[in-house]
Specification:
GO biological process, one term: cell projection assembly
Protein name: Membrane-associated protein Hem
Distance between the termini: 91 Å
Helix content: 55-70%
Strand content: under 5%
Organism: Trichinella pseudospiralis
Shape: globular
Structural class: mainly alpha
InterPro entries: Nck-associated_protein-1
Largest sheet: 2 strands, antiparallel
Number of strands: 4
Family: Belongs to the HEM-1/HEM-2 family.
Length: 677
């Protein structure tokens, strides 16, 4: 008789945490390989060596196996024999990354199988952390395999490395056969992944179905927000402080919602997946899905614009603002262009009169949270000890069916938060770290979500909701910086540098938005957040990009300010010249000529019945001060306005720290003013 798998003995929670972190690191390395192989400057020299061109073609064509009896293979061996050690040294990092990916894939597959065997029931509203970790792992795994299929030299690199390895050691690398087969299997990643996830469909679909209400809320259009009066301060005033409780329509068709949310989704950084094209190609390859393909084509044809950016969501939270910016980034190169209109389609969905201001206030909110983190932490320490601990203890006493093992964890959890006090928080020698408590809660979710466990968390929704709330409060104490980064980090701009510079220049050219131009060099400090410990080699490149962009932005702001100052000075100089004697002589000559015309018998305007104008005659110094309306701005008015806005931008951040380098915007302006020709 086969013994049933116990969830408590499988360490599901621990494995989910570790594998998620590991997957992100491997994706970073795969992304770095893809970019390196796509750039001739950073590409390994063996892959672009003309003397090895025929050998590389042969290796790629016959991948993953090479028949040593074949004449073409013998030629390959002869061409790389002399440089085999150099090849192994140069390609070992790339090859080992592929091997690490294969090992990680095995661990993920094993864990997903264990979760299926334990019959876990995942629901984002109940066992939030467990469901989030599971879905994140699935998404990262899919993104990792798709990125692998996008590496141009994915066959050449391991094939060339293995050939050199076999020449040096007499046998091929032990991992190469499985690695080669994996690369071949994932030539069409979506088809392979769809087959691979068939055994996991029950758990996966249950987790996805629980996202229905959450997904709909985060992807509502502006019209639906207005129709539901979700942002109204009058409707449901008793729920003003609990926006998440306001009713919204629930859409069952998540598939259609996904298509309507945009044209592309982010895989990693600037790597995106064009969901409509991919879905159409995928359904074309499956027999009997012609009807679904027709529906997809009809949908794309009838709704080419899909949904515009959801501007009202900016009012909700930093995370919604980040979603908007990320949405604009990934659609910057793929948004359809209107027929008969020149330019990029991206211009139809971006509003340069809104985006800089939105970024500015987003960074402001972020800085306020970081500046007053002690206030946030102190409040949550008091709340946990004064309310959450009492509420949890009372709720646990009302539940009699908790197993002994889980009861011990709950009791320790309750005791730990009850002992929190503000004095320890203010003591620098005591550093709060609740990672262990959160991991205990992850374990409890894994145990109690299994159908084979005596205690079912889904039967005690209030307990699950309270525990999720407590975990969030704990994160506000020791995990606040990471939460802020999750909701407001814009390090993706590092990989959309062309778009980033374009938005900066548009902001600098717009008088109404130029005061917010200071946010662009500030965003360069976010680039450090996209690094991962498993890919240290990209640190130098990202650091150089962040420093160069920050320097470029500050230099351009200072130049523009200098130009405005110079132009304003020139205009004031011209006004001052009107008071010089040479200008006065012209006025005297005009007056004498006018007097002579009167003596000659010419009728003046007054004799003809015209009233004399209240303003001085045209040409006198000071005429520019007489206006019918203040809305009529002169050139000097516009220059003064532009100078005021630019000075606000330069003075707003006294210092900007990027990669441990301190930039002083005022110094840039001082240098440009002093160096003005």
């Amino acid at each position: 008789m086969i013994k049933a798998i116990s969830p408590s003995s499988q360490k599901i929670a621990e494995k989910l945490v570790i594998l998620n972190e590991r997957t992100t690191g491997i994706i970073t390395r795969i992304y770095n390989i893809k970019k390196a192989c796509g750039d001739l400057k950073s590409k390994p020299k063996f892959l672009s060596d003309r003397s090895l061109e025929n050998a590389l073609k042969t290796i790629t064509k016959k991948f993953p196996g090479l028949d040593n009896r074949n004449s073409s293979v013998i030629t390959v061996v002869q061409s790389i024999n002399a440089i085999k050690q150099d090849i192994i040294k140069a390609l070992s990092l790339y090859y080992n990354t592929f091997v690490d990916l294969m090992d990680l894939k095995d661990h993920i597959t094993e864990l997903l199988t264990i979760i299926d065997a334990c019959q876990l029931h995942l629901n984002i509203t109940v066992n939030y952390d467990l469901t989030q970790l599971y879905l994140n792992l699935v998404c990262n795994y899919v993104a990792m395999m798709i990125l692998l299929s996008r590496i141009e030299d994915r066959k050449t690199v391991p094939g060339l490395y293995n050939a050199a390895y076999e020449l040096q050691n007499g046998v091929h690398d032990t991992c190469f056969p499985r690695l080669g087969q994996m690369i071949v299997d994932y030539e069409q990643p979506l088809k392979k992944l769809s087959e691979e996830f068939v055994p996991h469909s029950k758990v996966l679909l249950g987790a996805i179905n629980s996202l229905a209400a959450v997904y709909v809320r985060r992807n509502l259009t502006a019209d639906k927000w207005r129709a539901g009066q979700i942002l109204s301060l009058v409707t449901a005033s008793n729920q003003l402080l609990a926006v998440a409780q306001t009713d919204t329509p629930v859409f069952c068709d998540l598939w259609r919602q996904g298509l309507e949310s945009g044209l592309a989704i982010t895989l990693f950084r600037d790597e995106v997946l064009y969901i409509h094209n991919v879905a159409q190609t995928y359904f074309d390859s499956i027999k009997g899905y012609n009807k679904r393909v027709a529906e997809l084509k009809e949908f794309v044809a009838t709704a080419p614009g899909l949904l515009a950016p959801k501007v009202l969501l900016v009012l909700m939270a930093l995370s919604f603002t980040k979603d908007e910016v990320d949405w604009l980034m990934r659609h910057s190169n793929c948004w359809p262009q209107k027929s008969g209109v020149k330019g990029r389609g991206y211009e139809d969905i971006s509003d340069r009169l809104v985006l800089p201001e939105m970024l500015f206030y987003m960074v402001e909110l972020r800085e306020l949270l970081l500046r007053y983190r002690s206030v946030v932490q102190r409040y949550h320490v008091q709340y946990l000890a004064g309310f959450d601990a009492l509420a949890l203890n009372e709720l646990l006493q009302s539940i009699a069916s908790i197993p002994q093992e889980s009861s011990v964890i709950f009791s320790d959890f309750c005791q730990a938060i009850a002992e929190l006090n503000v004095e320890d928080l203010e003591n620098d020698s005591v550093a709060y770290n609740f990672q262990g408590l959160r991991l205990d809660w992850y374990r409890l979710q894994a145990y109690s979500s299994s159908a084979r466990f005596g205690f079912c968390l889904h039967d005690h929704v209030k307990l699950a909701q309270l525990m999720n709330t407590i975990v969030f409060h704990l994160k506000m104490i020791d995990f606040l910086d990471q939460i802020i980064n999750e909701t407001s980090d814009l390090s993706s701009y590092c990989f959309y540098s062309v778009l980033f510079e374009e938005q900066f220049r548009l902001c600098l050219e717009s008088p109404s938005q130029s005061r917010y131009v200071c946010v662009f060099p500030k965003l360069c400090s976010h680039f450090a957040n996209c690094l991962h410990n498993l890919c240290p080699e990209e640190r130098i490149h990202i650091e150089e990009k962040g420093l160069s962009l920050c320097n470029l932005f500050l230099d351009e702001i200072a130049k523009e300010t200098r130009n405005v100052v110079s132009t304003a000075y020139e205009q004031h100089r011209l006004l001052s010249e009107e008071l010089l004697p040479k200008t006065c002589a012209k006025l005297i000559a005009n007056a004498i000529n006018k007097e002579n015309r009167k003596k000659s018998g010419f009728m003046t305007l007054e004799k003809k019945g015209f009233k004399r104008s209240l303003s001085p005659q045209h040409g006198y110094p000071g005429d520019e001060s007489y206006r019918r309306s203040r809305e009529d701005m002169t050139l000097i008015d516009k220059l003064h306005f532009a100078l005021t806005e630019l000075c606000f931008a330069i003075d707003y951040y006294p210092q900007i720290v990027v990669w441990e380098h301190t930039f002083a915007p005022r110094e840039y302006l001082t240098q440009h003013i002093e160096a003005r020709p």
